């Protein structure tokens, strides 16, 4: 009996998640949140919610308040789904929530979680003050309980290893440290979030900058070791890490300037660590998407640009610089695999297909765009990689395309001189356009003038 085809319904939902009208999307999220409360439906609800996260991160519909979600509120910006078993600095894998919440639940003071649930039922989820009031006792108690567990584990030689095994691995243990810190500074972090634009942040205005300075000072007074976590939250909310350069320049001249300089090494470690993790996401995205090659090259270029700007902002020693170079080199290899490899063959095939006598005008235009896409992608990759082998491969591909266009241009001029009825001015100008992309305007102008002269006889 043949195997049943795989169920692609969730993948189809993921592809159309931004097509769902806002009111229906909000209703869908609320319905799924309700289903999560039933053990027999939790796995299905979580699977669907995972596909909705890209839209939820933008729309952020009000979600059903629960004690566990309230527990996560101070550190929810740091949550992510890693592509590997390692944990990035300044981020918390979502898989760490369940074991850490369970550990707290087993040790929480009597009635703590029940009191939080009652406060949430009485509160409007849109009322941030009410949510903060409901969360205060829960965050204080969870910080106390979890820090006690951690301190107890550190008293014996094998204590931390046993705690690691109980939680399910090193990434969860490292996340426990992060969560304890974030629970201790919950109130200033949530106040900062209310003062900043929703993510992804495009720019931080004077009001946001002032709030950031106050938060850094407040957190330093409460727990100085927690200051880097203010930056981790900011980094998680920015459009890209390259924006750190401008923000650090602005913060350097404020009352929080010394604090920023003091934690620059930790910020640098987070930048590099998160960029290393981002590589996995980039490869996954490229494997899942059939994108124009020029768009891929532009996206990789933005990744490199953001990394370089962020690295300049945070500084760091030679070790960090070497790791940054490795990330850039890996992005260059991604470009080589997904953009450069076979680019000349695809471009020349598209150029040859321009002569197809059966092609419609629309098909000819699409073929021209395919050739342009490959050529533009190669040009963009020239700026992307410092790897000599990649540069050599790019230059070789460009030369082969240029040679093919040169031969095509000469043939077109000869056919125009011979009044070949199957050659038109459109053929000439399509070739001129491609020559300009590959070899520049001077070479393209020479071909254009030669073609116009041939047509005039």
Structure overview:
- By secondary structure, this protein is mainly α.
- It has four domains: 1-62, no CATH class; 65-184, no CATH class; 272-340, no CATH class; 343-456.
- Helix content is 74%, strand content 1%.
- A two-stranded parallel sheet has the order 1-2.
- The protein starts with 8 loop residues before the first helix and ends with a helix.
- Mean pLDDT is 87; it is low at 1-8.
Sequence stretches where pLDDT stays below 50 over 5 or more residues: 1-8
* E-strand count: 2
What share of residues is helical? over 70%
Task: Figure out the total of helices.
Answer: 22
What are the secondary-structure elements, in order, as H or E? HHHHEEHHHHHHHHHHHHHHHHHH
- Mean pLDDT across every amino acid position: 87
How much of the residues is beta strand, in percent? under 5%
Q: What is the radius of gyration computed over CA atoms, rounded to a whole number of angstroms?
A: 28 Å
What is the CA-CA span between the terminal residues?
Answer: 71 Å
Number of domains: 4
Global structural class: mainly alpha
- For the biggest β-sheet, the strand order reads 1-2
Give the overall silhouette: elongated
Largest sheet: 2 strands, parallel
Structural descriptors:
22 helices; two-stranded parallel sheet; elongated; 2 strands; disordered N terminus; mainly alpha; 1% strand; 457 residues
Could you give a short description of this structure?
This protein is mainly α. It has helices spanning 9-15, 22-36, 39-59, 67-72, 97-107, 112-122, 128-153, 159-167, 170-184, 186-195, 206-222, 227-237, 244-252, 257-262, 264-288, 293-314, 318-340, 343-353, 361-382, 388-417, 425-439, 441-456; strands spanning 79-80, 92-93. The chain has 22 helices and two strands.
